[in-house]
Specification:
The protein has helices at 5-16, 27-36, 79-89, 105-112, 149-152, 155-160, 172-182, 184-191, 195-199, 202-222, 237-241, 245-251, 265-271, 282-291, 297-312, 318-324, and strands spanning 22-24, 38-42, 47-50, 56-58, 70-72, 95-98, 117-122, 127-131, 134-137, 143-146, 165-168. It is of the alpha/beta class. The protein is globular. Bound molecules: NADP nicotinamide-adenine-dinucleotide phosphate (NAP).
Amino acid sequence: MGAGSIGCWLGGRLAAAGTAVQLVGRPRVLDALRRNGLTLTDREGGRTEVPADRLQLFDEVPAGARPSLVLLCVKSGATADAARQLGDCLPAGTPVLSMQNGLSNVATAQQAAPSLQWLPGMVPYNVAELGPGRFHRGTEGVLAAQDHAALRHWLPRFHAAGLPMALHADLAPVQWGKLLLNLNNAVNALSGLPLRAQLLDRDLRGCTAALIAETLAVLGRAGIRPAKMSPLPPAWVPSVLRLPTPLFRIVAARMLRIDDKARSSMADDLALGRTTEVDALQGEVIRLATSLGLAAPQNACIRALVLDWPTRRERFTGVALQQAMGLAAGPGTSG
Ligand SMILES: NC(=O)c1ccc[n+]([C@@H]2O[C@H](COP(=O)([O-])OP(=O)(O)OC[C@H]3O[C@@H](n4cnc5c(N)ncnc54)[C@H](OP(=O)(O)O)[C@@H]3O)[C@@H](O)[C@H]2O)c1
């Protein structure tokens, strides 16, 4: 449900491995798939093609559909509508696994369609749309989901499709671990720079470090221990981001293995005037802080700048963003 980057990647891999998959999406993507079929590539050089005549494409949930599993792959702002559409059409109890970022999508979906069995999942890697019908996985990792009987028998099938998935008794620490890294999306979007160039700017890294440090403090107060989603333990990430760039290049070499042109999808959302997922990321931190009677001023500032971006369309240098966040003057881009 939501045949975009993640939906086409997951659905396409499952279809290529022999699972009957129905992709529900928008005309822009579906027309491209009808014309070109689906081509999936990855950073290890893998290439999977699914010809157009083997794809089952729908612009709404097909009448009478009885799926044994639904993967919810819309952006967070589209969750409630998509959930309502699924709830109107599918039998009660149909399992729906949210493959979305953030932590609130399952609760939002549950409220919109209480008859379905909603489960949280997590996609650790980046998938980008390279062209019509062409999607590329640019980083690596193992899918994660909340452990549930409805998912266990799917594991071999996901594995055979090149989509290894781990089940967790409690997915929240994994989701928070991923969210910590995704806090950089807004910094990247506001900078207007490709991801790699942004990560090589010490002042911009300082902004992300402040967001992560503030979030770690809130999580600590909430008694939540975020899972390790990068080679570094979460508590070390702010210090590593603040290192002088020559040292950062060495310590974070893996983080910098990114295509020169790659941007966060939030940068694309801003450029195209689409709703961003900032409320599912910085907004999640602010909600948790508020629930504890705390403030999260750095995350609140960045959220406000992203929401305000369409009116000002201002690109921030690292120093300007640090100033906007009220951080001490940065160490300078020469670092
Ligand atoms: N891309 C990544 O690398 C990545 C990695 C990890 C996690 N994620 C998460 O995965 C989720 C999906 O991201 P994405 O990058 O795949 O987004 P995306 O490329 O925008 O794909 C979502 C697609 O679903 C469509 N859609 C929305 N509502 C729909 C509905 N009711 N019926 C049919 N189609 C609908 C959207 O159309 P409209 O544009 O018209 O709404 C869009 O084409 C997000 O929560 C994201 O944070 C993404």
